Amino acid sequence: MNSNDSSTSLIMIFGATGDLAKRKLYPSLYHLYKKGKLADHFAVIGTARRPWSHEEFRENIKDSIHSFVGADEQIDDFSSHFYYQPHDVTDSDSYIQLKTLAEELDTKYSLQGNRIFYLAMAPEFFGTIADHLKADGLTDTTGFKRLVIEKPFGHDLESAEQLNAQIRQSFPEEEIYRIDHYLGKAMVQNIEVIRFANAFFEPLWNNRYISNIQITSSEKLGVEERARYYETSGALRDMVQNHMLQMLALLAMEPPIRLTTDEIRSEKVKVFRALRPIEGNEVNEYFVRGQYGPGTIDKNEVVGYRDEMNVDPDSQTETFVAGKLMIDNFRWAGVPFYIRTGKRMTTKSTKIVIQFKDIPMNLYNNNEQLQPNLLVIHIQPDEGITLHLNAKKSGQNMQTNPVKLNFSNEGSNGINTPEAYEKLLYDCLHGDATNFTHWDEVALSWKFVDKISEVWEQTNSEIPKYASGTMGPEEAEKLIENDGFFWWNLNDLDVENCD
Length: 499
Ligand code: NAD
Hints:
Elements: E1 9-14, H1 19-34, E2 42-48, H2 54-68, H3 75-79, E3 82-86, H4 92-108, E4 115-119, H5 126-135, E5 145-149, H6 157-168, E6 176-178, H7 186-196, E7 210-218, H8 227-252, H9 261-274, H10 282-286, E8 287-297, E9 300-302, E10 320-326, E11 336-342, E12 349-356, E13 374-380, E14 384-392, E15 400-408, H11 409-413, H12 420-429, H13 439-458, E16 465-468, H14 474-481, H15 490-493
Parallel strand pairs: 1-2, 1-4, 2-3, 4-5, 5-6, 7-11, 8-16
Antiparallel strand pairs: 7-12, 8-9, 8-10, 10-11, 12-13, 13-14, 14-15
Helix pairs in contact: 1-2, 1-12, 5-6, 6-13, 8-9, 8-13, 9-13
The structure holds nicotinamide-adenine-dinucleotide.
């Protein structure tokens, strides 16, 4: 086991019995442990309301590893580092007990007072927990302190500002790690490398050569058990404010002068500052919303959003958003960035399509229409890059044939490709905040999104519907067709459909 880069820290998970902890956090910690990135000097305290013992908690950790990882080598050693503390987030006594346990474990595992506080709980508790951590002395320690916060960070700019102000009473900005798990995805991290480590993309990466960029994140699933949260959020707040705008920033930013957290973040912030604000009447010109009706997914009939459990039968919540975003700077003036995200769509896929402009003159016009060059970045479930080119058809004549050069990340890294949460936990243990969102990014993206939700919330007309199993309402097609483009069909672009 290589313990050179193994981490020394106490990790406190608030919401330890929850879905996120079970499905993502424990499997990720286990992977890090197996790779020697968490060796002897780590301990985890799980807190939640249930009155579990340490042993019961460890059994649950083992169950989670069985279910989501499968393998269970070293599982007893691994789970022996886990401790449980029943907890009420609003009660100071709970934090005092937690502090006592933290200090015991600090000594037992020689943790040097390093502490990560991971808030895997409903967002209404984020501020309260941060207050108590400081007031009840848990941040009073000699080592590093890092607060990891799940999304959503606020509901709009105003609530995000309030939450931020509250948290900043206890933690300075550099100790706050706001999770956007898309930033942990291998191919999202690869956007930067593709752009800045290849001589032939960067010279073309501008309004002279790119005609438009399309970012789609579609799900087949409906709202499932998340209706209570989703009814107050909708796709705009759930997906666009964070994940979609983060991908856009990585695609559009200038090359940073160095690959440091501050330099990268400052380039991303400049993109958000250059985003053309869409407000008032323009909202309906630039943005389309939709809500899924009944339809067919994988040959099964599914109900519409309004018939889902815990959804208001007259709900106006959007389960789909498409938008056209303009970045008003030298590099991108005139290039539309189209985004599209929704539930109950035809396919589960996150892809970015960079469409290059047509060449100035088609010498092969007599034969076939030349296809535009595309660079497709496959984010999930496939991971890879495809480059769409035109080549000569075999035979005597000079006809062209579209060909695809394909790189599949799965093929090269196999099953060892770390999951997003594993990467983000590793970064946090090492104090690397590059792939977490800075407050300035959060604030600017809320400012942009708020202008759209304000208009939608004041609109009396019925929200456009789309049948489950389709790619959204007709209006989304018109949005892009009005500019002379069309959405690329994601299934056609799939890695397995590449030559
Ligand atoms: P969950 O409802 O499954 O779990 C919530 C946890 O909080 C439970 O352990 C519960 O016991 C604990 N809890 C609730 N009230 C408490 C109280 N008063 N005192 C002490 N403990 C209390 O939620 P989840 O799905 O795990 O989500 C947690 C956070 O992560 C949320 O902010 C969510 O938006 C975010 N998130 C979740 C996912 C996911 O895949 N589940 C994905 C992205 C973000």
